[in-house]
Design a protein that fits this description.
The chain is mainly alpha-helical and about 120 residues long. The protein is built from five helices and no strands. The model has no long low-confidence stretch (mean pLDDT about 85).
Length: about 120
């Protein structure tokens, strides 16, 4: 039984040794010359404006998560569209149910006011 897990355990041990070793050797060998310029936050080549520790509204994160959820769900429609003819009526009904569930979720989020940016 243990023989079947031996390659996985070996891979995990090698990955852990490599990652921990990389961090340790980086600390020991790497240059340590901090300066104000090196410690400044980098913003796409532009000089930083304001604090890098600015707080964002929770609404920003909620809208970002909703975008990701609904965007990923649309990705599931691509394989369905490619195989549409082979799936026939069953595939059409299943995608209709899928879209209906997404629509119910979207209406729920809309009614709760999660999409309101104030």
């Amino acid at each position: 039984m243990l023989d079947s897990y031996l390659p996985i355990i070996t891979l995990i041990v090698i990955a852990l040794c490599f990652s921990i070793g990389s961090v340790i050797f980086s600390r020991l060998i790497g240059e340590k010359k901090p300066s104000a310029i090196k410690l400044a936050p980098y913003e796409c080549g532009m000089p930083p404006v304001g604090s890098a520790r600015e707080r964002f509204s929770v609404k920003f994160y909620i809208i970002a998560m909703l975008f990701i959820v609904f965007d990923i769900e649309v990705v599931f429609m691509y394989p369905w569209a490619v195989m549409f003819k082979r799936l026939g009526l069953f595939g059409f009904v299943e995608m209709g149910v899928f879209i209906l569930i997404l629509l119910v979720g979207y209406v729920y989020v809309w009614k709760k006011g999660a999409l309101e940016w104030e």
